[in-house]
Amino acid sequence: MRDILRSPTGIAGTVLLLIVFGAALFGPWIAPYDPQAFHATARLQGPSWRYLAGTDQYGRDLLSRLLNGAPATVLFGLGATVLGVGAGAIIGVSAGVAGGRTDTIVMRILDGILAMPELLFTLLIVTFLGGGLGQALLAVAVTFMPGMARIARSAVLSVRTREYVLAAQARGESRLWIVGREVLPNVLGPIIVEATIRVSFAIMIGATLGFLGLGAQPPSTEWGLMVAEARQYMFRNPWCVIGPGVAVAMTAMGFNLFGDALRDAFDPRRKR
Amino acid sequence: MSLAYLLRRLGSIVLVLAIVTLAVFILTAVLPGNAALMILGQNASADSLAALTAQLGLNRPLPVQYLSWVWGVLHGNLGMSLRLSLPVSQVVGEAFWNSLALAVTALVAVTAVAIPLGVVAALARGTVVDLLIGLFSYVGTSMPEFVTATLLLVLFASPGAQMLPAGGFVAPGENLLGFLDHAILPAATLGLILVAHISRQVRSEMSEVLSADYIRAARLKGLREGRVIRRHALPNALAPAVAVIALDVGYLLGGIIVVEEIFAWPGLGRLLIYALQNRDLPVIQAITLLLATVYALTNLAADIAIAILDPRVRYA
C-alpha cells in the first residue's frame, strides 16, 4: 500500500476511489432529495444552491440521482469482474494444470470467442438474456472470462516448471494441494492487477449497455441510463448529461489509475 | 516469415471463424422470439406465425439451418434479410463501406496525432508536458464512447454553437466536404480512446529505446538530435506500437457500434443493433462473420508488419 501511495498515479487513483466508494456507501443517505421526486416548478435547471447539480426533465434533483446511482455502478463493476475473473481463472488454471488435449481444446474455443470484438460479444449475450441490470452483469462477466482464462493459464504455465512445484511433486503431494498451495498464490498477482483494471472496463460497458437501453431500466438511477433519458434535453440543460457522464468517467478512471499503480507495486521492473 | 507459417495462420483463422459462426448461431437460435414473431407482432395468430416461420425456413432442425447457411456462404450467398426483404450481401455491403469510411478516417487521424504525442511525451519525460499528456491519456481511456459523444455534441452541435451536424451521413463519393463535416464528431469520439492508448504505448517504447546504448552511440558520433530520433529511435519504437494499433482495430470494431447508433451513421454497427432487435439472424451472422474476419486479418497483417519493421523477429 505504501508503494502505491508513492506514485502520483497511485495517489490520484486512491483519492478518486475514496470519493466513489464514499458515494456508494453513504450516497443514498446524504442525498438531499428523493431521487424519484418530481419538482414540477424546477425542470431542467442548471446548478444552484437549491439543486447543487441541477435538475432533469421532470425536475428531479440530479445530485440525489447521481448519489443513488453510485452503489449500483460500483457493485456492477465489482460483481461482473469478480464473476468473470473467478470463472476465467478457474478455467485457465484448470486448462494449464491439465495440459495436453483438454488444454488445446479449451484454448481453441477461447480463441474463437476472443476473435469477436468485445462489445459485439456482450451485445449478443445481452440480447440473448434479455435487457436488465442483472443480465447485463452476467453478459459482461461472460465476456471477461476468455481473456482472464488466457492470462491465468499463461501464469500457471510459467510457474509450472519452477523448482518449488517440482519439489512438491517429488514430495508426492496431491495435484489439488499443489494447485492450491503452490501454484495459485504465485499466479494471484497478475490476476489481481488485471482484475482491477477490468473493473473500469466493466463499469464503462455496463453504463454503455444502460445507455443503449439493454441494461438498467427506467426509472433506475443508473448513470448510463440517465444520459440516455436526458439526451433529448441536452441542449436545453447540458448538466443533465454532463453529471452522469463525468461520474462514469471518474469512477472508471479511479480503477484505471489504481490498477496501474498496483501493477507497478507488484512488478518492481516496471517502475520508472 | 515462411509461406508455411502464413498458410498455417490462415488455416487457424478459418477454424476460429467456424467456431465464431457456430457460437453465434447457437446463441441466436436460443434467443426468445424468432423473426416471424418480430415481423407479425405479439398479436399474430398461431396459424400465420407457423406459416411465416415455415416460409422463412426457421422450422428446420438447427444443424440443417446452420449447414445450409454455411453452404450458402461458401457459394457467396449470404441469404435474404428476414426483415428488410433484401439480399444480406447488399444490405451489409452498403453498411460495410460506410463503416469503413468512418473507421479509416478515425484511424488516419489517430495515427497522425498519437505518434507525435507519444514521442513528445517521451522526449519531455518527467516534465509538465509529459504529465499533461499522461493525464489526457487516462481521461481518454476512462470515457465510454457515449459519454465522449454526448460531451462533443453539447460542445459543438448545440443550437447555439451549430458548428457541426449532430448526426447523419453524406457519401464521400458524393460530397467529400459534406462527408468530413459529418464524420468529424464520430471519428473524434472513436479516436479519443485510441489516441490515449497508442500515445501511451509509443511513449513507453520510445523512452525505453532512448536509453539504449545505440542511441548514446549515435549521439556520441555527433549526429544531430533530430536525426537520432527519426533514423535510430523512432523505427525501433514503432514496431510494438503497430501491434497495439492492430489490437485497437478490435476495439474500433466494437466502438463503432455505439458511435454509429448515437450519430445515426448508416454503418454495420447501426445495422447490427437493428438486426438484433428484430432477430434478423442472417444479417447478425453476416456482420459477426465480417467483423471477426476483419479482426483476424488485421492481427495477421500486424504480425507481418512487425516482422518487416523489426528484422530480428522470425516466425517459423
Blueprint of the fold:
The complex is a heterodimer of chains A (272) and B (316).
Chain A: H1 8-30, H2 62-98, H3 100-114, H4 118-129, H5 133-160, H6 163-170, H7 175-211, H8 223-230, H9 239-266
Chain B: H1 3-29, H2 35-40, H3 46-55, H4 62-74, H5 88-123, H6 128-141, H7 145-156, H8 176-210, H9 213-220, H10 225-262, H11 268-277, H12 281-309
Describe the structure.
The complex is a heterodimer of chains A (272) and B (316). Chain A has 272 residues and is an all-alpha fold. Helices cover 72% and strands 0% of the residues of chain A. Chain A has one domain: MetI-like (MetI-like fold, Orthogonal Bundle), CATH 1.10.3720. Chain A contains nine helices and no strands. The model of chain A has no long low-confidence stretch (mean pLDDT 83). Chain B has helices at residues 3-29, 35-40, 46-55, 62-74, 88-123, 128-141, 145-156, 176-210, 213-220, 225-262, 268-277, 281-309. The longest helix of chain B has 38 residues, at 225-262. Chain B contains twelve helices and no strands. Chain B is globular and about 85 Å long. Chain A: It is found in: Cell membrane. Chain A: One of its GO terms (biological process) is transmembrane transport. Chain A: It holds the Pfam family OppC_N.
